[in-house]
Backbone:
């Protein structure tokens, strides 16, 4: 393990706390926005009574759930860029979370990275859970790599490989 890769937890928490104190209201607003978007997806489902059979059935609208997931993914791109801007010390506006997707290709790359990572994590989990956890830890930065590099500058598989490389020596 290289010494320059070692995180100093105290420094990390101190810096995070300073960023939080300056932006606490925005973080609460971001949480409320995600709560509302999640409520849209949850609103379309519920238990219903089937008059024909007398059964209680669970009903959900796949289209509304898909729209909610796409909207959450879209907003997550803006939120991740907003947070990365704060970490870099840049002046960032909360309104930027709504318009931080560079192109349809950029959005598609983020979705594709999420789907590939999710599939690999699920496959690893089928292999007695621990491999799934290791894969999850290894791929946790792939979405950040795509978002930070504006999608077009980094290919999907390169982002996955990059995340795997970043976490080398820290997964276990």
Residues:
């Amino acid at each position: 393990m290289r010494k320059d890769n070692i995180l100093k937890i105290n420094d990390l928490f101190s810096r995070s706390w300073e960023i939080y104190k300056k932006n606490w209201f925005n973080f609460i607003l971001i949480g409320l926005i995600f709560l509302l978007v999640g409520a849209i997806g949850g609103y379309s489902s519920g238990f219903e009574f089937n008059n024909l059979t007398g059964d209680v059935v669970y009903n959900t609208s796949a289209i509304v759930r898909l729209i909610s997931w796409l909207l959450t993914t879209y907003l997550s791109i803006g939120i991740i860029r907003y947070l990365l801007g704060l970490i870099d010390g840049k002046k960032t506006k909360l309104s930027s979370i709504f318009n931080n997707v560079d192109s349809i290709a950029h959005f598609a790359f983020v979705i594709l990275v999420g789907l590939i990572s999710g599939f690999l994590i699920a496959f690893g989990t089928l292999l007695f859970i621990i491999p799934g956890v290791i894969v999850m830890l290894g791929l946790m930065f792939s979405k950040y790599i795509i978002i930070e590099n504006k999608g077009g500058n980094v290919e999907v598989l390169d982002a996955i490989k990059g995340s795997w490389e970043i976490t080398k020596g820290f997964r276990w």
Observations:
- Strands lie at 46-49, 56-59.
- The chain has six helices and two strands.
- The CA atoms of residues 4 and 55 lie 61 Å apart.
